[in-house]
Amino acid sequence: MRALLFLLLASAGIFAGEALTGAVEKQPLNMSAIIMFVIFVGATLGITYWAAKRTKTAKDFYTAGGGITGFQNGMAIAGDYMSAASFLGISALVYSKGYDGLIYSIGFLVGWPIILFMVAERLRNLGKYTFADVASYRLKQTPIRTLAAFGSIATVILYLIAQMVGAGKLIQLLFGLDYEIAVVLVGVLMILYVTFGGMLATTWVQIIKAFLLLSGATFMAIAVMAHYNFNFETLFATAVQMKDLTIMEPGALISDPISAISLGVALMFGTAGLPHILMRFFTVSDAKEARKSVFYATGFIGYFYILTFIIGFGAIVMVFNNPQYLDLAKQAIDGGSPILGGDNMAAIHLSHAVGGDFFLGFISAVAFATILAVVSGLTLAGASAISHDLYASVIRKGKTDGLMEMKVSKVATVVLGIIAIFLGITFEDQNIAFMVGLAFAIAASANFPILFLSMYWSKLTTRGALLGGSLGLLTAAVLVILGPTVWVDVLKNAEAIFPYKYPALFSVSAAFIGIWFFSITDKSESAKQEKEAFEAQYIRSQTGIGAEGASEH
Amino acid sequence: MKQALVDRIKNDPDYIRLVSERSRFAWILTIIMLVIYFGFVLVIAFDPSFLGTPLFKGSVTTIGIPIGVGVILSAFILTGIYVRRANGEFDELTRRIKEKAKEA
Questions:
Q1: What is the pLDDT of residues A12-57, one digit of tens each?
Q2: Which of A398, A416, A454, A498 has its CA 20 to 30 A from that of B84?
Q3: Which of A190, A184, A230, A225 has its CA nearest to residue A206?
Q4: What is the model's pLDDT at position B91?
Q5: Do B60 and A248 touch (CB under 8 A)?
Q6: What's the total number of domains in chain B?
Q7: Can you give the C-alpha Rg of chain A in angstroms?
Q8: A543 to chain B: which residues are within 8 Å by CB?
């Protein structure tokens, strides 16, 4: 159990909060949690049935017909971001390290304003279904879409594995069921949501889950604060008595400036390059709603992180050293005050401490529902890259109809679901903590630079985007492999060849410099045309004239 | 988009104003956010004990708590400031540009 936290901090650093790893022990069967989860599944399948009747065209399938409001989309984006691992992982980090948990969550939040100021509106004005629509807007379709699709699929699969393994571990801890049951259950339900209900069902599953998670977390935070008359000083003072003063200041999470900045770059630009997040901007009707989405999302996510901070401290005062949650068997061997199920269970035990068995069941069910909702969004983004970018644009050169494209997308969903189940089971006992970090590194180093420069830099050419983007992708992958998270922790070498855990500072720089160099040295005729096409693209990106689904159509 | 339309919009004073004002505004807010966040990160990297200073004499609460929560709130407030101006002033300009583009 301690391994869970050890991996979370030691080998995986910041991204482990997204990937629950390490060995876990199966807990006794939790019936109230299972019943509440079954209710959630029933309700979401009902929504899928409703959504299926409304999903007739490719536009419905990919973007829910473009009819999601800014508020709904903001909630769905927040839902994509508030994964089970970020709820349990961040509160566990606060529980064990105090202030470091807050630093961690801030890094994940600050990318959002940048997305709003730089990307959101232009993305909405230029794109149709995937971010590759924007990246390849005035460049050659085949190479750029292939690279963008590859970046999307790599990000999605890495993220999916982390979520699937997390689901398996969680079901053992929360429901007392077997690992394989969880992985197959998540895979099958996700295939049902996405193939039948498309983006509409995926969005509503995400909204409902975000609402349940925010409500549950709010209740827990208020219950904790009510205990201390809503006085933070009393809460902190009690927590410090239980532990010590170091929980009130930065600890060992960030040690040197290069790692600190590199991590910041990965989180900021990585968020702006995640395909399942970018895709959500096409579900709203226009730039105004896209803007509102980010405003609401930032609010919900920020609020959620403040709640998890209070929940973490609540767990210190109400769960830590509480004989009810103490793992006596473990204590007899290792000493200390280990809690049942490991530190990632801090929030779960706290839910029992403040709300009894019923509320424990509720929070457990919500935690599992969260994984389900997140993998659905991921799979839809991966399937869209396959059907819209690879099949329709690269293989059929745009000569296909929406219905055929939608069929390919559904087949791709089923295939991705099966791959996810298979990989989830394969990676059960592997150290997968590096995967979310790698996913962010690829998103920041390949997806984001191409997307950003295609919208901002008139001199970008196909050659520059292709070579520079590939360079960023390769640099990110190679540096992660040579860095401490894979070279030392997975491959068991004594010392890392590349000393930093987070390669983004280097790989993002490599991508930007590569794109710049191979674009300005590109003197071909097609490069000239691509530069000339920027003006029209720029006007559309600024005004939305000619945009898909815009109001004047 | 036809070249004639591109040229007309390009020279529309409303368009010129929209692009320059919005770009400036977006970049200023971006830089504010970057300075706040990377400033916070650099304090953690170079002088972590500063964030461990008690908020007032004898308190357990440290300066780091309001500063951390402040960074979270600043992200939300900055997005709010942008959305407010964009949904009013910038959307009005965009509407006028679109109308003029349609007329011709």
A1: 334 444 445 555 667 777 788 888 889 999 999 999 999 999 999 9
A2: A454
A3: A190
A4: 92
A5: yes
A6: 1
A7: 23
A8: 9, 15, 18, 94, 97-98, 101
B24 to chain A: nearest residue by CA? Answer: A117
Q: Are A395 and A132 in contact (CB under 8 A)?
A: no
Give residue-wise pLDDT tens across range B71-102: 999 999 999 999 999 999 999 999 999 888 88
pLDDT, residue A501, reads: 83
Give the residue numbers spanning the domain of B26: 2-103
How much is the mean pLDDT over chain A? 88
Residue with tokens 């209710």: A39
Residue A485, both tokens: 């998270």
DSSP secondary structure, A153-183, as one string: HHHHHHHHHHHHHHHHHHHHHHT---HHHHH
Nearest neighbour of B61 by CB, restricted to A112, A232, A546: A232
Q: Does A73 touch chain B (CB under 8 A)?
A: no
Residue B57 sits at the chain A interface (C-beta within 8 Å): no
* Contact residues, chain A, for B98 at CB < 8 Å: 543-545, 552
**B72 to A116: CB separation less than 8 angstroms, yes or no:** no
- For residue A68, give the 3-state DSSP assignment: strand
Q: What phi-psi label fits residue A310: left (phi over 0), alpha (psi between -120 and 50 degrees) or beta?
A: alpha
Phi-psi label, residue A461: left if phi above 0, alpha if psi -120 to 50, beta otherwise:
beta
A52 token code pair: 């299926």
Q: Which residue of B59, B64, B91 is in closest CB contact with A233?
A: B59
B23–chain A Cβ distance below 8 A for any pair: no
CA distance A309 to A86: 12
A428 phi, psi to nearest 5 deg: -50, -50
Q: What is the tens place of the pLDDT at every residue in A164-191? A: 888 888 888 788 888 898 899 999 999 9
- How many alpha carbons lie under 13 Å from residue A273 in its C-beta half-sphere? 36
Does residue A552 belong to the interface with chain B, where contact is any CB pair within 8 Å? yes
- Torsions phi, psi for A521 (to 5 deg): -90, 0
Cα–Cα dist A401/A278, whole Å = 24
> Which ranges in A272-327 belong to alpha helices (H)?
275-278, 287-318
Taking the Cβ of residue A359 and every Cβ of chain B, the question of whether any pair is shorter than 8 Å is answered with no
DSSP state of A137: S
Closest by CA to B48, choosing from A102, A108, A237, is A102
Is A243 near chain B, with CB under 8 Å?
Answer: no
Q: Residue with structure tokens 């309700």?
A: A43
Residue in chain B nearest A535 by alpha carbon: B6
